[in-house]
Structure formats: C-alpha cells, structure tokens
Amino acid sequence: MKSFLPENQPPRQVWQKTVITGEEANLALFHDAGGVYHHRETGKCRHPLCLHGLMGRDDLVEKYKGDSIEGFLKRAADQEMLNSVFPQWVKENMTAEDLENLFIAMDAPQGLVKDVKELLDDPHLKARNMIVDMDHPRLGPVKNYNIPIRIKDIPLGVQEGENPHDPDLGEHSTEILRDLLGKTEAEMEVLRKDGVIWI
C-alpha cells in the first residue's frame, strides 16, 4: 500500500490524559512489516514499558522501571528512543494480522490507517451507507462520503435514490446578481470581462 505519509516521517507516539479515566494513554501511529499504517491505544497495557516487556526487551524494562520521579525523569530523557523501539520492532517482525491479534489480546483499540481508495472500498462503511454513489452533472459518476452521524428513526445524509450535489463554482452567480442585487445583463457582462464572475 502506498502511504500518504512521507517515507522519512518517524512514527508518532504521544502520552495524554484520557477524558474518561484521567489516566495516561499511549497513542501511536506506525506501520507493520508490510508497510501498512496502524493507530493504537494502550488498552490493558497502560505502563509506558508494558509493550517493551511484551517484545522481550527486559533490558529496557529493568533500566527504565519505576514509578518514582527518578524513573519518570529517566524515561523522559530517553523518550524518543523508547517510543521508537516498538514501532521499529513491529515494522521488522509483524504482519497486519499479527498486530491485530496482539492488540485484541491486550484489549487495546487499534485499526488500519487507510487511504482514500481503501476507505471508498471498505465493506463496513458501505454497509452503513457511508459511501454513496452520485451522478455529478459535470464530473459524471462519483463516490462521496455520507454524514457519519446515525440517529434512530431519523434519516440523515444522502438516502438511497437521492442525488444531491454541491453547487459548481459560479453556478448561481447570475441568479444572485440579477434577482437579489438587481444587476442588469450589461452590468454582469462587464463583470465577466473583468474576471469577477465566470458564468
């Protein structure tokens, strides 16, 4: 899969407080051995060295363990290195299926980071009517994303058989200038010649 991220962009991993629990959650973006990008949260693996232990890197766990301020400062000083170890290990050793199974076992939310083409072909999104086929008056048949919000018994977004489209550039210029602003055809022609309007 061709990534939409630059090849030289390092995996991103940050610590932040979760809204619900107030605990720190480890959020990361990285790719596996097949070059497929994933995002994940920690799930049951909440300690910053938990994943290093799962990888068999007991040397790092031993060196950087501890919930004291000293342990925190030691990890903070080498955080860039610690954050890079797991993504690099995944990239070298795991397939997308391996990674998915690991995070399921950890009860950790995770998912593939898909590009636009993959999203448009996603069977789950299609089943939820998130991908709609539309007939654009100028572009012809196009696929578009539907509104993601779902409320029981209240239809939102594009429904089956509907074919709305956004206004084209300048599509209503004449109508607005003539009917709302009172411009004459001669005045609008001057605006066209000056490049103020296109239609």
Explained architecture:
The protein has 199 residues and is of the alpha+beta class. 37% of the residues lie in helices and 17% in strands. The protein is built from 9 helices and 6 strands. The strands form 2 sheets. The chain has a 4-stranded antiparallel β-sheet with strand order 1-2-3-4, with helices on one face. Strands 5-6 form a two-stranded antiparallel sheet. It starts with 11 loop residues before the first strand and ends in a 6-residue tail after the last helix. Residues 1-27 have low confidence and may be disordered.
> Given the helix and strand composition, which structural class is it?
alpha+beta
Please state roughly what percent of the residues sit in beta strands, choosing from under 5%, 5-15%, 15-25%, 25-35%, 35-45% or over 45%: 15-25%
Q: Which spans of ≥5 residues are poorly predicted at pLDDT below 50?
A: 1-27
Average pLDDT works out at 75
Sequence of secondary-structure elements: EEEHHHHHEHHEEHH
Strand order of the largest sheet: 1-2-3-4
Give the tally of β-strands.
6
Bulk shape: elongated
Bin the helical content.
Answer: 25-40%
Number of helices: 9
CA-to-CA gap between the ends? 41 Å
* Estimated radius of gyration: 26 Å
Sheet with most strands = 4 strands, antiparallel
